[in-house]
Specification:
The chain folds into 2 domains: 2-55; 77-294, Orthogonal Bundle (MetI-like fold), CATH 1.10.3720. Helix content is 74%, strand content 0%. The protein has helices at 2-55, 59-62, 77-87, 93-124, 130-140, 145-158, 166-173, 176-186, 191-199, 204-215, 217-232, 248-256, 263-283, 285-294. Helix 4 runs antiparallel to helix 11, helix 11 packs antiparallel against helix 13 (263-283) and helix 11 crosses helix 14 (285-294). The model is unreliable at 1-5 and 14-24 (pLDDT under 50). The chain crosses the membrane at residues 27-52, 96-124, 136-154, 166-187, 219-240, 260-283. It is found in: Cell membrane.
Amino acid sequence: MRNVSSIVATIKKAYVSRQFKRRNRSIIGDLSLTVLLGLFGLFSVWPLIFIINNAFKPLNEIFIFPPKLFVMSPTLTNFQDLFIVIGNSWVPMTRYIFNTVFITAIGTLGSVIIGSMAAFPLAKYVFPGSKTMSKLIVYSLMFNGTVTALPNYIIMSKLHMIDTYWALLLPSIGGTLGLFLMMNFMVQVPDALIEAAKIDGAKELTIFWRIMMPLSRSAWITLIILSFQSLWGTTGGGVIFTEKLKPVSYALSQIVNAGIARTGVASAVTLIMLVVPVVVFIISQSNVISTMATSGIKE
């Protein structure tokens, strides 16, 4: 009996000591992690703060060396000069904006729908060549846009789509990044839901729209953000040559390249092009983090 009491006391003492050590280690670890993340956060937000301040700096502050982070004499001159330059363009700015909105909306919608519909059978069905296709999709992610620019141009040229919206839309809709994200997310949806839907008489399209898409909401919202950011900033300079078909980013880039006198205007342009993607990302960042955390899980 005494031995049992001794053992219990020893275990209790060890447990209390372990809890005490874990508690101390947890507090120190939390503080260290908070400080580390705070430093990384400041490092990450530094360029954004610099861009915002630069847009409101007069030219004499922009050329100060070493450069100052915060603006000392805020001014709207850079934005006023930007609107003056835009007003002198022979193509209305509204046309450039329409081109960007049209390309971004159609390209984003197409990439989500086509990518999701292609990911569904690859994620939930086994058919001849399915594994090979999945490997090719992963392999294609190794090549960035610079590598595929020339093949895309040749294909668009063969299809007689150069100098049309399709020269930007088709490569975006046919991209494999969205397909990869949707496929890895749909794999995690329980097969029992699909079997139950089939027993109830649901067809494949019904299963796709009523079950797979709602359960993959985080994935396709992430895909919307990635496609939006890619198309919003595209200039289309290598495949679109008619001025009336060019996006707003191309028009703004030409303003920036006009010379050193437009450095302030360039700062305003940078801020304008940055605001929309940043706002879209902030609104839906939880879905992006959720998708990135789960899309790499290997079943």
